């Protein structure tokens, strides 16, 4: 593990592999990057360098609440700057769920630095937007209104951030409660607006603007629907879609929650698909 100061925030990161093209992978939700280490190693074995990092407010990176853009846009800009510092002027950017949103917004905001996208478990639909907006933002707005930043520090997620980086407690406690609520409210509003979009975080125009090659693996639950994957694949000009990596289910009989074991068990297949895509379309 290593650390870099990215736009005034200390970001925890790791590079797996010693040479070759750069691939950046990001997990879903606000989880730390550790769950992607085994997948990163399999991909790196094909002759790549895989960059993993904890986004701000995730894992062992610092907490900070920037209301200048949506949370996923902030994350995309952080990754761009981190890559620039490491000499990765061109990145294949990949991710799952929230990590996929980051990747797509990286493509939209920094197209000149993008070589391709590796996406799995795209998020879309009203049910996803309503549930995740509350999970990511609504619950913290309520906590801050009721108990200030002390209550935020005792929440499950931010307790984990403090455990991973003890100095985050002081950063949280020093944060103005009203400003925190304002940023969370803005981020929630940005997220809620995505209900009318083909996928959370990106418009039809955004998806059509992506000219780099894209490899997309569909989900099979009500948050990461196959419909969402098909919509995205139909809009992105150069997209390779895989619909059978996990159990293929009818659109009206999807899982209520994503099956973490199913996706862990599918990692060798995911690595194989992504490696073949990189070899055929991008880096060799």
User: Largest sheet, if any?
Assistant: 8 strands, mixed
The name of the CATH architecture of the largest domain is 3-Layer(aba) Sandwich
Q: Indicate the CATH class of the largest domain.
A: Alpha Beta
Query: Structural class given helices, strands, pairing?
Result: alpha/beta
Number of domains: 2
Span of the ends, CA to CA: 28 Å
CATH topology of the largest domain: Rossmann fold
What attributes characterize this protein structure?
284 residues; Rossmann fold; alpha/beta; eight-stranded mixed β-sheet
Report on this structure.
The chain is globular and about 50 Å long. Strand 1 and strand 2 form a beta hairpin. Helix content is 47%, strand content 15%. The protein folds into two domains: 2-124 and 198-282, Alpha/Beta hydrolase fold, catalytic domain (Rossmann fold, 3-Layer(aba) Sandwich), CATH 3.40.50; 129-190, no CATH class. It has helices at residues 37-44, 71-85, 98-109, 126-153, 156-164, 167-174, 177-192, 204-208, 226-235, 260-265, 267-282; strands at residues 2-6, 9-16, 22-26, 49-53, 91-96, 114-120, 214-217, 239-242. The mean pLDDT is 96. It has 284 residues and is α/β, with parallel strands linked by helices. The longest helix has 28 residues, at 126-153.
Topology:
Blueprint: E1 2-6, E2 9-16, E3 22-26, H1 37-44, E4 49-53, H2 71-85, E5 91-96, H3 98-109, E6 114-120, H4 126-153, H5 156-164, H6 167-174, H7 177-192, H8 204-208, E7 214-217, H9 226-235, E8 239-242, H10 260-265, H11 267-282
Parallel strand pairs: 3-4, 3-5, 5-6, 6-7, 7-8
Antiparallel strand pairs: 1-2, 2-4
């Amino acid at each position: 593990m290593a650390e870099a100061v990215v736009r005034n925030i200390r970001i925890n990161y790791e590079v797996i592999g010693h040479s070759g093209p750069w691939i950046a992978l990001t997990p879903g939700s606000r989880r730390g990057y550790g769950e992607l280490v085994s997948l990163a190693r399999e991909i790196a074995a094909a002759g790549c360098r895989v960059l993993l990092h904890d986004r701000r407010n995730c894992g062992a990176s610092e907490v900070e609440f920037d209301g200048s853009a949506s949370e996923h846009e902030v994350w995309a800009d952080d990754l761009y700057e981190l890559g620039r510092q490491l000499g990765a002027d061109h990145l294949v950017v990949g991710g799952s769920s929230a990590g996929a949103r980051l990747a797509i917004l990286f493509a939209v905001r920094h197209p000149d630095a993008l070589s391709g996208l590796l996406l799995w478990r795209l998020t879309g639909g009203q049910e996803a937007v309503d549930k995740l907006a509350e999970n990511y933002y609504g619950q913290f707005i309520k906590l801050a209104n009721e108990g200030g930043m002390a209550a935020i520090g005792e929440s499950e997620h931010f307790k984990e951030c403090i455990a991973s980086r003890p100095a985050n407690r002081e950063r949280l406690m020093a944060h103005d409660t009203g400003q925190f609520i304002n940023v969370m409210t803005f981020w929630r509003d940005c997220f809620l607006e995505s209900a009318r979009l083909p996928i959370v975080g990106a418009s039809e125009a955004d998806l059509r603007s992506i000219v780099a090659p894209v490899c997309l693996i569909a989900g099979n639950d009500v948050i990461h629907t196959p419909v969402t994957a098909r919509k995205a694949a139909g809009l992105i000009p150069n997209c390779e879609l895989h619909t059978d990596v996990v159990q293929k289910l009818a659109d009206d009989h999807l899982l209520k929650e994503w099956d973490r074991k199913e996706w862990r068990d599918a990692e060798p297949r995911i690595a194989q698909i992504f490696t073949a895509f990189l070899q055929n379309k991008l880096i060799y």
